[in-house]
Design a protein that fits this description.
Radius of gyration: 21 Å
Structural class: alpha+beta
Distance between the termini: 27 Å
Helix content: 40-55%
Largest sheet: 5 strands, mixed
Length: 363
């Protein structure tokens, strides 16, 4: 749900002017110059309507155009985002804002990456997918810890960021809504830890079925059984349609990143079509192979190291999908022969893809 309210922008009351990117729909090139980007999706209008709030009223309070959400996603800076969220808090005038948003959850109001994750086979897979593509929604890192007892989700905000407490809590409660919508079961988290307790604890307990714990690190955990409970909304065909575009968008964000990150992002695009050489990646980045090697050396990296680490990360990602065979994964990683994938995987992990898949399923 926090994804929906992304981009709450502030009106400069001293100058009467709008921030540079406020209410704009920047091009890819323009977006690359923006320091911290948060996406405000058009579906936010439906969410605000569902909780009985006028979109126009919220926009006016934040100094935004009433038709801000009439087009595609709007990208706003971190300060604008936090300010708009606070404007929503004032307009709603309800201390249980995260609770209202959780109860009003509907998959269609999410960003495409989160909607696509709803098509996953279970919570573990959905969370892994969202964590991988989280930067397409905003500069917040999503951490995922899966062990034999539980799955725990937490978030790292950018350095120096102080998100409103209701925003941080909404990020956690979103996953309760996701797992319940996906499984059509009243899944109860095994633990919720927050920095600051909300006011109406009884109302939260009635919805969540568990008490809050106070901790320096906010997180939400689900039992291993609930995290692997099948999603009735699963639809891999939709995910396969979404994922190539998500990879392209992720690559776009990394154009101004360090060369190592740019190479990695380019490989996400190149590997599934069998382009794995330094010359092919250099061509995609519009530099010579020699220049690319030099830039990577300056960052104390090598092309082969990045290729191997990217392949290993993607291999573990794909192994969570029980419908993908080893041969299909080898193809997606740019290997001409399945045996080459097996040799590489043994070098990375000391074991076979089958052993790794079994361990991932157990966890």
């Amino acid at each position: 749900m926090a994804v929906i309210a992304t981009g709450l922008a502030a009106f400069d009351t001293e100058t009467g002017s709008r921030p540079k990117y406020l209410g704009e729909h920047p091009t890819v090139e323009e977006r690359r110059t923006m320091p911290d980007k948060y996406a405000l999706e058009p579906g936010a209008r439906a969410l605000l309507t569902d909780i009985g709030i006028s979109t126009a009223a919220v926009m006016r309070r934040a100094g935004l155009r009433a038709d801000l959400l009439s087009g595609g996603p709007v990208w706003l800076t971190q300060d604008e985002f936090f300010s708009l969220w606070r404007a929503l808090e004032v307009e709603v005038n309800e201390p249980n804002l995260p609770l209202l948003l959780a109860q009003a959850f509907s998959p269609e109001v999410f960003a495409p990456s989160v909607f696509a994750a709803m098509m996953s086979p279970d919570l573990n897979t959905a969370a892994q997918r969202v964590a991988f593509y989280k930067r397409l929604i905003g500069p917040v890192r999503m951490n995922l810890d899966i062990d034999e007892r539980r799955t725990t989700i937490s978030f790292d905000w950018p350095d120096g960021a102080e998100p409103p407490a209701t925003l941080a809590l909404t990020e956690l409660l979103a996953w309760v809504a996701v797992v319940r919508a996906g499984t059509r079961a009243h899944v109860v988290p095994s633990r919720i830890a927050v920095n600051e307790l909300p006011e109406d604890l009884e109302s939260y307990r009635a919805l969540l079925g568990v008490d809050f714990e106070v901790s320096e690190t906010s997180s939400i955990s689900f039992s291993a059984a609930d995290a692997s409970r099948p999603f009735l909304t699963a639809n891999e065909a939709i995910w396969e349609t979404f994922e190539p575009q998500l990879r392209r968008q992720l690559a776009d964000l990394d154009v101004e990143a360090p060369t190592t990150e740019r190479v990695r992002a380019t490989l996400l695009e190149c590997l599934p079509v069998g382009r794995t050489t330094v010359a092919e990646v250099a061509n995609e980045l519009a530099v010579s192979s020699r220049t690319l090697h030099r830039q990577l050396k300056a960052e104390q990296a090598s092309f082969q190291q990045i290729l191997d680490s990217t392949r290993e990360e993607l291999a573990r990602h794909y192994l969570r999908d029980p419908d993908l065979s080893a041969a299909e994964i080898a193809f997606l990683l740019g290997y001409g022969e399945t045996s080459s994938f097996y040799r590489a995987f043994r070098n990375w992990t000391g074991g076979t893809p089958e052993h790794a898949r079994a361990a991932l399923v157990r966890n």
